[in-house]
């Protein structure tokens, strides 16, 4: 009677279907967990997030250090060649007939 009304699902052998925990989403699965299991699950999630955040912080620190070295190298190159760079700029402005001398100050 329940099966004919669509209230009872059965498999091909006529056995009652029950939800497989593997097929459930996290929210549905939490309903079947004890409080201790839920806390353990949350602890694992927080630990995973902590590890990811620490990895990203370390990666950012390395990247920032590398970028700082590159900027410092660029500044050093500019300071060593400041006169040549300015003369090249001035020559480029003359060749293109660009008349805004404000760039040179």
Write the layout of secondary structure elements.
Elements: H1 26-30, H2 35-80, H3 82-95
In total, the number of domains comes to 1
Largest sheet: none
Number-wise, the strands total: 0
- State the end-to-end distance: 92 Å
Q: Roughly what is the average pLDDT, rounded to an integer?
A: 78
Estimate the global geometry from the Cα principal axes.
elongated
H/E element order: HHH
Structural class, please? Answer: mainly alpha
Rg, nearest Å: 34 Å
List low-confidence stretches. Answer: none
Number of continuous helical runs: 3
Helix content: 55-70%
Proportion of beta-strand residues = under 5%
Outline:
Helix content is 62%, strand content 0%. The chain has one domain (21-104). With 105 residues, the protein is an all-alpha fold.
Structure characteristics:
single chain; 105 residues; mainly alpha; 3 helices
Description:
The protein is mainly alpha-helical and 105 residues long. It has one domain. It is built from three helices and no strands. The longest helix has 46 residues, at 35-80.
